[in-house]
């Protein structure tokens, strides 16, 4: 049987640099310099080479390229859980910056069910891929697990603040955000407050922000009741009882998705938001920030954090001996319909 193929179909083997050079009508060395974007190649020639590479589906040999350049052109990114809107948008910001700088991002993602040892194995995967630098965005990854790798590879933290000054990082000013939303609740007149506090083992950043909110509320002589967020079923039951008995006039949550879940539970229990009890969230990103949901919250620049962290990692590749740098980015208060002045019958108990 005759093997029939279209002459223009791609070869079954991986195209080589020689194939690209032949298709572009240049020497192999000229094709190599064009793909490396070296300045000694004529602009039209370089464009012709890149177009030939695109049409052929040429992919450079990463191992050979790293031997020549002593770089892989890869930045590793580890995020806590890409299914979370915050982490997904942070990763998108990294990808956008990587595209602008002509490097690639290879990412790993944990999940809320993984423990630290399992996350550590994912991080080591990025190291075995010979990434030139690694950006870590995880609210549960203790920095002591990262210290052994600091002298081997540039490493940048991003997302929520870390206290370890051995690391460079780009963070959201979470303390400012906690103060802003607490002050909003104080200004509305609430003095009987429930805060949902997750265990630090689930999220150090969420536990820290709720402690900052608690401390701020106490300056206004508020009565603050803590609801353990470790068991969501029990937490929801406790919140409904506190609201129904009018022992609190507002419930403050560590995230917007928690706030949305609580709003649904309260309404299904015939409690109106905010007429009977107000609800606030935190870390507004993506669809959870839509005005139609109306969650009073703190908006965070997730994409910008990812972009800046990636840029910081690339800078540390070029200047590995520079001192650690830390950058804080500000968010802003989002005033929604889920929080209003307390009902007149609200009382401290």
TrEMBL record:
Keywords: DNA-binding, Transcription, Transcription regulation. The keyword DNA-binding applies. This is LacI family DNA-binding transcriptional regulator. It comes from the Bacteria. It comes from Brachybacterium tyrofermentans. GO terms for molecular function: DNA binding. It holds the Pfam family LacI. The keyword Oxidoreductase does not apply. Residues 15-69 form the HTH lacI-type domain.
């Amino acid at each position: 049987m005759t093997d029939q193929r279209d002459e223009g179909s791609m070869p079954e083997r991986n195209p080589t640099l020689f194939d690209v050079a032949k298709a572009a009508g240049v020497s192999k060395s000229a094709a190599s310099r064009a793909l490396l974007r070296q300045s000694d190649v004529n602009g039209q020639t370089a464009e012709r080479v890149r177009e030939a590479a695109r049409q052929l589906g040429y992919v450079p040999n990463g191992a050979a390229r790293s031997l020549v350049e002593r770089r892989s052109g890869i930045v590793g990114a580890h995020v806590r859980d890409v299914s979370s809107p915050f982490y997904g948008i942070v990763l998108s910001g990294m990808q956008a910056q990587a595209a602008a700088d002509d490097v690639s991002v290879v990412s790993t993602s944990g999940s809320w069910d993984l423990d630290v040892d399992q996350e550590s194995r994912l991080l080591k995967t990025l190291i075995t891929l010979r990434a030139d630098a690694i950006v870590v965005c995880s609210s549960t990854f203790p920095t002591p697990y990262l210290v052994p790798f600091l002298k081997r590879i540039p490493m940048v933290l991003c997302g929520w603040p870390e206290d370890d000054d051995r690391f460079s990082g780009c963070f959201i000013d979470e303390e400012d955000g906690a103060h802003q939303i607490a002050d909003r609740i104080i200004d509305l007149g609430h003095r009987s407050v429930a805060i949902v506090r997750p265990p630090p083992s689930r999220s150090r950043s969420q536990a820290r922000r709720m402690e900052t909110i608690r401390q701020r509320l106490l300056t206004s002589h508020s009565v603050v009741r803590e609801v353990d967020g470790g068991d969501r079923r029990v937490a929801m039951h406790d919140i409904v009882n506190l609201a129904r008995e009018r022992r609190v006039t507002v419930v403050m949550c560590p995230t917007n998705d928690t706030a949305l879940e609580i709003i649904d539970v309260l309404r299904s229990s015939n409690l109106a938001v905010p007429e009977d009890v107000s609800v606030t969230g935190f870390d507004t990103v993506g669809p959870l920030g839509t005005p139609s949901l109306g969650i009073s919250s703190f908006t965070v620049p997730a994409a910008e954090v990812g972009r800046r962290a990636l840029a910081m990692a690339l800078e540390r590749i070029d200047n590995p001996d520079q001192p650690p740098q830390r950058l804080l980015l500000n968010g802003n208060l989002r005033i929604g319909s889920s929080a209003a002045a307390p009902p007149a019958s609200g009382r401290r108990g």
